[in-house]
Amino acid sequence: MTDSPEPKPAVPGRLRRLRPASVRPPWWPLPACVLLGAACGLSYGLLAQPEYASTSYAVVTAGKGIDPAAALGYAQSYGRLATSDATLGYARGAAGEPVRELRTHVRSETSPDSPMIAITGTSADPRRAADIANAVTEAVVVSSGHVAKDTGVKLIKFSHAVRPVAPVSPSVPLGTAVGGSAGGLVGGLVLLVRPRPGRRGVTAQVPGPSPAAAAPAGERELVR
């Protein structure tokens, strides 16, 4: 009696490749952007030069026989003239700055409901900021006085600009908070738009056919 050949151990058909697990969580861009934004805001608050702002006000009054509504229109016009080259050229002596530099340190605002003009001066020196606002306001008032008889309205200085006690530029805590918030927003957007990896199916190990099962039926040895 002969023994049938012992079946050989099964040979795996396909072996699954093992991938090392990622050490970074999928949401890592969010805290990274928050920290980066907070660091940028902190650096800006520490390194940026503080800026001060001071505001002076002027008001347009209508003369006798002049429609009070006309004062609103002249206030809009004088507000635009406050930053013109002619006005700044007249104010540069009192402001102590050339016209090119003065233009970057002054702005004017008007309201459609009030004949008042707000002229703001900005500078790294608080005293210089007040001087700029007062000099430009005085220049506008003087220029309007030259045509007061023709227009029927008069521009008068309502209040003087005073030396500010605190800068208008962001402080260190505020700059850090704003930078962190901006970084969190950017990180959230990155998580939303970045492509997500698809889920890969698990490949099962399929044993190969044994030699006894693969051989033809006629060649199998019979057991006596």
Map the helices and strands:
Blueprint (H helix, E strand, L loop, with lengths): L28 H19 L4 E11 L7 H12 L3 H11 L3 H5 L2 E6 L2 E10 L2 H21 L1 H4 L1 E7 L12 H22 L17 H4 L10
Helix pairs in contact: 1-7, 3-5
Helix content: 40-55%
- For the secondary structure, the number of strands is 4
Mean of pLDDT: 77
Structural class: alpha+beta
**Silhouette:** elongated
Q: What separation lies between the terminal Cα atoms?
A: 5 Å
Low-confidence stretches: none
- The arrangement of helices and strands along the chain is HEHHHEEHHEHH
Q: Spatial order of the strands in the main sheet?
A: 2-3-1-4
Compute the number of helices.
Answer: 8
Rounded to an integer in angstroms, the radius of gyration calculated over CA atoms is 40 Å
Structure characterization notes:
There is one protein chain. The chain has 224 residues and is an alpha+beta fold. It has 8 helices and 4 strands; from the N terminus they run H-E-H-H-H-E-E-H-H-E-H-H. It has helices spanning 29-47, 70-81, 85-95, 99-103, 126-146, 148-151, 172-193, 211-214, and strands at residues 52-62, 106-111, 114-123, 153-159. The longest helix has 22 residues, at 172-193. The relative contact order is 0.23.
Task: Using brief descriptors, characterize the structure shown.
alpha+beta; 4-stranded antiparallel sheet; 8 helices
Please give a quick description of this structure:
This protein is an alpha+beta fold. It has eight helices and four strands, in the order H-E-H-H-H-E-E-H-H-E-H-H.
